[in-house]
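@channel sequence for tomorrow's demo:
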Amino acid sequence: MARLTESQAGGANVLRFLDLIAFAEGTQAVKGSDDGYNVLFGKGLFHGYADHPRQKITRLSNGKPITSSAAGRYQFLARTWDELVKRYGFKGRFTPEAQDLAAIKRLGERGALQLIKDGKIREAIAKCANEWASFPGNNYDQNPKALGALLTQWQKLGGVLA
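structure tokens (generated this afternoon):
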């Protein structure tokens, strides 16, 4: 579960959506992880939250090699993290709380935050498809989750669809 409180996150739906991203990215299910906050691309683990781990890992996806520095519960690329640190002042620390806040900032930048608060999850997922490769509707060719599976998970998380 996300580490922020409901008031810090901006509401219960925002917390649910953070958990939905972690479900889609597969990070919260990694054995031995800190609820996904210390997961590397490829499902390995890193230790310590002083900074983004900046490890480039190559894996096959649909028979093609993909190299990524994605890490954390929301699989931020190192360059994306650096951009967020500069813009929002996370001071470089990659703590669970900073990861949650950074994901919320990205949701806002994508125009999805109010949609999430309003329960318009289909529309929010579509707005975030180019942010998270696990969401359907992007061109990353990395086997995104089906929309139906995401909507079912949303309801399992206690969310209501508008």
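heads up for whoever presents: The two ends are 23 Å apart (CA to CA).
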